[in-house]
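Take a sample.
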Amino acid sequence: MRVVNLDLDNTLIYSYKHDIGSEKIAVERYQGREISYITEKTYRLLKQIKEQFLVVPTTTRTKEQYDRIDLKAGAFPYALVCNGGVLLVKGERDEAWYRVSKELASEGMRELYKARGLLEKEALRKFEIRLIDDLFLFTKCSDSPTAAVKLRRELDGKSVDVFCNGEKLYVIPKQLNKGTAVRRFREYIKAAEVIAAGDSEFDAPMADAADIGIVPAGFCKKYSPAGEPREMKGEGIFSDEMLSWIMEYGLRTNR
C-alpha cells in the first residue's frame, strides 16, 4: 500500500481569489456560490494517481468544510481533517482515532484556554473564537501576523503552535500536527511508502514525516523545515506540477 497525503487549500484546490487560468472546474460551493476550483489538468492527474496510490486528503479544514468539496474524482475512502485530529472513514469519524487525538491535544489544553482568554481581549480580532472539535482554537484577525506574535510571547511554545494564514489565526497543540497524523495513518493502514504534499507552515511536519515530501518553490527558504522536502520548480500551478511529479514517480516505481 502506497499512500499520498494531500493538503487541499492552495495545494490541490484554489479559491476564487486565485488566478489559475480559464481551464478550471468548480469543486466547492458555499451559500449558493462557487468558491474553490481545481485546474482541469489537476482533475485528470488526480484520477490517474488514484489508480496507483491511496490518496488521503489531509487538511486543517473541519469535517463540515471538507464535506463541501467535490473533487469530481470519485470517493476518497479516507480523509484526515482538523489538522489530522479527525480521521474520516467513508465520510464518518473514526472514534478510536479521535480519542487518541483528544489525548494528544490534552497536553496543550491549558495553553488553549489561556489563548482564548487573551484573544477575547484582542482588539485585532474580528471573528468569534472557536474551539474546533475540542482540539484547537480558530479565529480571524484584521492583522493576524501581529496578533500571532503577541500570542507567541504569552504562550508556552513547547505546548502549542500559533499559525496565521491570511486573516485566519490558529492555536494548535504541538502534538496535533499533520506530521503526527501522517505517522499515525502510516501505522493504521500499514503503508509501505508515504508521499505528502502541502504548501504552508501547517504542512512542514507532514512533509518531514513522509518518505517523500513535496512543496512549492521557495518553501524551504520561507519555512525552514526540519527535513529536506522536494521543492517544485515553480514553472506552473503547484497542484499541476506536484501531481505530474507524483504520476511520473508512480509509473517509474510501480510495484
Remarks:
- DSSP finds nine helices and 15 strands in the chain.
- The radius of gyration is 18 Å.
- The first strand starts at residue 2 and ends at 6.
- The chain has two domains: 2-101+177-253, 108-173.
